[in-house]
């Protein structure tokens, strides 16, 4: 069965590659390879002795393993989705176990092997016994990651009805924490090398991603028994995940879904049903809450935007970034909204077939984004600026916030009609979508450039009306450009978003 499924996976993947963008795929592979090699070199560098090395590699492992699992939970299985085999007369457990074995052939595991390869190099420097232990630890870590990624895709991925449970929030919080850790990576590495943050070192050693490096250090210190215990721990986790896998994937293939409580009989009233723009706003607000992709991106924006500015205050005692938590959240939210039409897919057909609906559609999407993002961004900015205790921060915080909010209102629809990217066959983001988000991050931040120049020139409170003015210009100007492009390229956009890769 495994051989047949491997052939099926190869055939489906080959067909999917036909409609993909080679440049985007090559770019993704190059970035992944560079990240893996960079992580390898980081583990080979001088890291402050065995303890510091173990902590640094444990942190690197946590980022790679956590990122792999979170990506699988968000995007699901892009090729062999479990529900495709629901009608086959095969034992569910056997089929689910076969799918978990095939997950070991994921190309992402090759990048993970390279990224964590410093474990083997370090073990070889301690002698043959430590080298063997290091090699086993590396293999077990990769296997555990692959099995957990398959479980996450089956339990939380698209098709698992995660849109109305806590799965979406779990994925969003996990990605947010990983993103904040990656942002603070330089300062964390310095602290780990100097062994100045004891609780962080202990936390990294307790997590399974730190058991492999700890086993290598233990073997290097002559405690082979302690190293074996850690390896047995990894093997035990693999066994537990392997036993849970058939149950999770079996429920997915059988179509059983968790029960939800009784819905309230009260239904929300339609907002001004005679107004097309208000109808679009009502529809968009529901999508921001119910669509797993949108809700995940929104939660990431709110957590990462605020967390990246608050964590330095908690770890280093600096309040320099505190006033800009709301602005950063708005920038990330604007970047996450850069592909609204691509995320909605063929739903744009409703706009294409309704004469005169383009303006209402674009304006409704703009206002709904502002309704969702602005209250949190404003509240975060006011609270964090007040906590910073520096009155001079107010014009900077308010001016930049006004600018990026207006820039986000304009950027969201315009970037969505420029190079719309369809989701993959499983309803998850494609590499092209991720690349577009990163480009949009830079563009969204640049919308605050005029206000920033006024502030740097000593403009003070004059920067606030400048931020409001530039925000209005971006919101109205980009909105009109989006309306014009959607009017002239409706068919092209429709063809682009219904293409699956």
Automatic annotation (TrEMBL):
TM region(s), chain numbering: 21-45, 95-117, 129-157, 169-192, 224-249, 295-315, 321-341, 367-388, 394-414, 435-457, 463-483
Key words of the record: Membrane, Transmembrane, Transmembrane helix
Highest taxon in the source lineage: Bacteria
Protein name: ABC-2 type transport system permease protein
Origin species: Microlunatus elymi
């Amino acid at each position: 069965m495994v051989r047949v499924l491997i052939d099926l996976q190869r055939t489906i993947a080959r067909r999917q590659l036909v409609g993909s963008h080679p440049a985007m795929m090559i770019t993704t592979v190059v970035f992944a390879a560079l990240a893996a090699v960079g992580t390898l070199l980081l583990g080979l560098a001088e890291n402050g002795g065995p303890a510091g090395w173990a902590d640094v590699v444990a942190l690197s492992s946590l980022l790679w393993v956590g990122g792999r699992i979170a990506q699988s939970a968000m995007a699901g299985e892009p090729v062999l989705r479990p529900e495709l085999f629901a009608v086959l007369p095969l034992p569910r457990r056997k089929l689910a176990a076969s799918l978990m074995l095939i997950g070991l052939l994921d190309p992402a595991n090759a990048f993970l092997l390279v990224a964590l390869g410093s474990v083997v190099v370090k073990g070889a420097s301690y002698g043959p016994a430590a080298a063997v232990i290091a090699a086993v630890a590396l293999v077990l870590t990769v296997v555990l990651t692959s099995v957990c990624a398959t479980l996450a895709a089956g339990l939380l991925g698209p098709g698992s009805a995660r849109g109305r449970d806590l799965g979406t929030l779990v994925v969003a919080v996990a990605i947010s924490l990983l993103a904040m850790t990656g942002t603070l990576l330089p300062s964390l590495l310095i602290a780990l090398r100097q062994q100045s943050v004891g609780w962080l070192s202990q936390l990294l050693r307790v997590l399974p991603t730190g058991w492999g490096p700890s086993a290598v250090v233990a073997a290097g210190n002559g405690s082979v028994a302690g190293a074996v215990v850690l390896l047995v721990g990894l093997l035990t986790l693999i066994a537990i995940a392997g036993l849970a896998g058939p149950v999770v994937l079996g429920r997915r293939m059988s179509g059983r879904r968790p029960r939800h409580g009784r819905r309230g009989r009260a239904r929300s009233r339609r907002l001004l049903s005679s107004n097309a723009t208000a109808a679009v706003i009502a529809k968009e607000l529901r999508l921001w809450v119910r669509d797993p992709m949108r809700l995940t991106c929104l939660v990431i924006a709110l957590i990462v935007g605020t967390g990246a500015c608050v964590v330095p205050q908690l770890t280093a005692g600096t309040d320099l970034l505190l006033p800009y938590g709301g602005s950063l959240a708005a920038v990330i939210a604007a970047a996450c909204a850069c592909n609204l039409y691509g995320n909605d897919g063929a739903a744009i057909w409703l706009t294409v077939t309704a004469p005169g609906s383009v303006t209402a559609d674009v304006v409704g999407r703009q206002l709904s984004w502002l309704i969702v993002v602005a209250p949190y961004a404003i509240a975060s900015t006011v609270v964090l600026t007040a906590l910073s205790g520096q009155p001079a921060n107010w014009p900077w915080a308010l001016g930049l916030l006004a600018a990026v909010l207006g820039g986000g209102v304009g950027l969201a629809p315009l970037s969505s009609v420029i190079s719309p990217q369809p989701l993959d066959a499983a309803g998850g983001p494609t590499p092209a979508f991720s690349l577009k988000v990163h480009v949009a991050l830079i563009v969204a931040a640049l919308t605050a450039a005029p206000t920033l120049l006024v502030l740097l020139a000593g403009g003070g409170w004059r920067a606030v009306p400048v931020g409001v003015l530039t925000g209005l210009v971006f919101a109205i100007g980009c909105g009109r450009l989006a309306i014009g492009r959607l009017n002239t390229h409706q068919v092209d956009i429709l063809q682009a978003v219904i293409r699956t890769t």
